[in-house]
Specification:
Layout lengths: L4 E4 H18 L12 H15 L8 H6 L4 H26 L9 H10 L5 H32 L1 H15 L14 H13 L10 E2 L4 E3 L2 E3 L4 E2 L3 H5 L15 H4 L24 H18 E4 L8 E3 L3 E3 L4 E6 L3
Antiparallel strand pairs: 1-9, 2-5, 3-4, 6-9, 7-8
Helix pairs in contact: 1-6, 2-4, 4-6, 6-8, 6-11
The structure holds protoporphyrin IX containing FE.
Amino acid sequence: MELKGDVEIKQVLHYGSLNNMMMTVFGKYYDFGENGDGLELEGFVSEGYKLLGTFNLSDHFPILGWLDVQGVRRRSRKLVSKVDGFVRKIIDDHSMVTDQDNNHGYFVDVLLDLERENKITRSDMVAVLWEMIFRGTDTVAILLEWILARLVLHPDIQAKALAEIETTIGSSRAVMESDIPNLPYLQAIVKETLRMHPPGPLLSWARLAIHDTHVGQYFVPAGTTAMVNMWAIAHDKGIWSEPEEFRPERFIEQDVSVMGSDMRLAPFGSGRRVCPGKTMGLATVHIWLAVLLRNFEWTSKDDVDLTEVLKMSMEMKNPLVCKVVARVF
Ligand code: HEM
């Protein structure tokens, strides 16, 4: 990844994250340049985000669902069939060059082993792999963009994080995953960003009540779709002191898990449908952030606009444009 001068960082992070996922899953790296082999894949991912982000009128007026006036059903069917062919081909290509005793331990190899033991079907494999690619790409990229926006806005916090990295790792060797537990301030920055800008603020949390039930003082009849507004909880004055202040120190002062056990901050959800990629997502964000901070200084000549827009994830309305200066060791 080459960074130089003023950069609109969103697309760089998106392609980086997509390639990170494709490497983890299949051991395959794509070129997203003009005429690159990654453009077809990128097209599927962005069509999927567009479809899921479309305000679906038929959720509110079921008759429109039957008519499919927005063409959502037709486009979804077309996308599913194309994605199915695409993912099946990568699995086929991969299984031709690997077998049980000669694999590189990519995620697809684990699934291929399960398939040999008749524990998973090929179509389930395709679904699992595509879910990982689709759900794991933009969440990571969007969270990193918010973190970098915050670090541009708060140079003091950026300097403190860099000082922690320099003291812990020094400047003569590369950052490693095993360094992350020794970087509590860097972890606190990630938590504070997840609190202020959770990439999945409410939509993914949709739950259907299958029985009449009570939640606190509220009666929820069977058939109701309910959503948890994580964004509101994370900005609630009754739960967080000065919730509008970006202050990573709050997570040094008190240990709050973000993995789903503490409902004050559950940006990956909680319970049976909790994000299955939370450990991988967090590990990726930590290591990338440590590398990006160690190697570059992040500033901007323009004001950083923190306006949020809710698409499939909650994104920056105006993508971050920042000046990226390589640090000299
Ligand atoms: C910073 C990164 C990430 C954030 C903030 C995030 C957040 C979320 C949230 C809020 C949900 C909904 C949970 C619920 O409904 O209770 C979810 C679901 C999901 N996430 Fe993540 N996620 C991230 C990274 C990843 C990664 C890296 C992967 C794949 C490797 C992934 C795969 C999934 C899948 C497959 C689901 C659907 C689970 C289901 O419906 O049962 N996510 N994520």
